[in-house]
Amino acid sequence: MPLLQLEGVSKRFGRVVVADEITFQLEEGTSTGVVGPNGAGKTSLFGIISGDTKQDDGSVHFDGRSLGSLTAPARCRLGVGRTYQIPQPFEHMTVFENALLAAQQGAREHGHESYELAYASLERSGLAELANSPAGSLGLLQRKRLELARALATKPRLLLLDEIAGGLTDLEVVELTSVIRELQQDGLTILWIEHVVRALLSTVDRLLCLANGEIVADGEPRQVLASEAVRRVYLGGAIINEPTAI
After folding, report:
1. Mean pLDDT across the stretch 47-73?
2. Residue spans of beta strands (DSSP E) within 127-213
3. Which of 17, 81, 91, 221 is the most buried (most CB within 10 A)?
């Protein structure tokens, strides 16, 4: 049984179609990238899966259970974790308190267990040394790491990463990608939207390309990027950016 299954999922905002009968499934322990031009419907797709956006048609199942009637918090507690393009930590709280809140509200852990989970999530994301720092004092890379730590503190089985490498330097992309690769190797199921293509090429097993709310290509990452359908989506340009030691 697939961990995540979408069947005929559609969503419109007025005349704008952001999801047009999208169908795919993810097996547990796999890592899948999502690419596509701006406005392709990628973040809307994440919203539908996480419960932030309600689809008009179709179904979403997680571990065999329909998510149709469940709120975003309920889906999080089932094991659907996500990050957002723009990190928005509670800036007046410490890094550790941000992770602790995620552990208590998302994973429903309490007492000593919640503290252990919060600290473990910071260790995995490389932020343990900044645990007592105010979240508002963090730079972009550290904010991205905290966004990841907060998602991990909810104990996800499926992790949705939304452009987590965006805005980072090449070296920062390398650092963050190594963390994500370790999560994949530990068996976490990952669905990752990213414009930094070299990060995906070094990490994911499979690539989906979205355009106008439709999946136009699905398969092995380099084959997908080399396909005529994907090149048309990107106006015929060469979009493969070879990794620099990632």
Report:
1. 97
2. 158-162, 189-193, 206-211
3. 81
